[in-house]
Amino acid sequence: MPRDPKRRTFLMGATGALGLGNLPFLIAPIAAAESDLRPITDLDPLATVYDDVSGHHVTGKILDHWLQHGRVRVFGRPISEPLIADGRAMQFFESGVLSEDPDTQDPSGVSAMNLGQTWWEANSEALDVTSVDFRSSYWMWWTGRGVNPEFWVKYLDEGSAFAWGYPITWGQVVDDQLTQVYQKTRFIMTADGPVLDPLGRWLADLWSIDTTPVGRLTGIVPYRADRFAPDYGPPEERRVDVNLTEQIARFYAGDQLVYSTLISSGRHPNYTWQGTFNIFSRVIDERMTGGTEEEGDQYDLWNVYYTQYFTRSWIALHYAYWHDEFGAPQSHGCVNMRLDDCRWAWFFCGLGTQVTVHR
User: CA 80, CA 90: separation in Å to the nearest integer?
Assistant: First the structure.
């Protein structure tokens, strides 16, 4: 039986909404708790900003996650005030819904709803699909679909599997426009290029969420991107700590923790080397090859952005666009990172930055 998206339910899981985890074909049901959402009224001025374009506040852990993982590019601007139900904060954005998630491994403590999956389940039967485009720039075995070539650059350069999820349809022509649905979003091709379907607005309307703009509260600063670009001090005092047990990389300026993120380290038999190393080579757009056909682990990957090598066996911190299994070992030995995290690490680190890997 199709799920009713009109139910105001938390559908959050360890890897996003619907609690689908790592199941390959997104078929697992999940028990959802009925919850009445209400505005958070006691916003902390020191942990809150106001978006004067949309007229809404963002606060706490959801603000941290929004800032770290794409901001307007991925989630759009906030369209509701911060909400709470069952002790968990939740907020609607133009293209996303974020919620505090006690089950996530992410250090932010927040997960993004799988809006694309939710939209598809609610609308797929009514869509007038005139043709299907089976072309693929990169095939994702998790869902058995490939990213359409018309959307590949946006998918790759703006967040890949973590930001958008895996494709759950092939390219589809609907209303004379090429579209493709991913777990977390839907891309639409326009005359100006691919854009995000504002699915956050779709669900907010469906759930009757109040999206009326509000005035800025006293003592809360307006959001400005440059306010979140601090000076971390001398480069020689910066270091990276990679915890293989937790699958978390932490970045320090001196003794102060300034950033932390989920990673994916090497899996059997190609475990990530432990020890203390220093970054000795940096390539902003790398091609990586390795493995063997005999062992079944051969790979040839282009566009591996923000690659920073720190062992003489060419183990690196780098972008991984081919999976969204962060928090579990997945790599051939390297430290896989999400786009915004590895971009941040690129500017934080430099040649000589110390990297310690341990359990």
Answer: 10
Instruction: Name the stretches of the chain with pLDDT < 70.
Output: 1-35
pLDDT at position 295? 77
Domain with residue 268: its CATH number is 2.40.440.10
Query: For residue 334, what is the DSSP state?
Result: S
Q: What does the alpha-carbon distance between residue 67 and residue 223 come to, in Å, rounded to a whole number?
A: 10
Residue matched to tokens 């039986």: 1
Q: How far apart are CA 217 and CA 57, in angstroms?
A: 9
275 torsion bin: left (phi>0), alpha (psi -120 to 50), beta (else): left
Q: How far apart are CA 160 and CA 152, in angstroms?
A: 9
Each residue of 254-263: b (16+ CB within 10 Å) or e? eeeeebbbbb
Element (H, E) at 307: strand 299-309
The answer to the question of residue 2 being in a domain is no
Same domain, yes or no: 44 and 174: yes
Residues 24-79 pLDDT 10s = 222 232 223 345 889 999 999 999 999 999 999 999 999 999 999 999 999 999 99
Question: Domain limits at 346?
Answer: 235-358
pLDDT attached to residue 110? 97
- The CA distance from 215 to 121, in Å, is 36
What is the residue-wise DSSP string for 9-36?
Answer: EE-EETTEETT-TT-TTS------EE--
- Predicted TM-score (pTM) of the model is 0.88
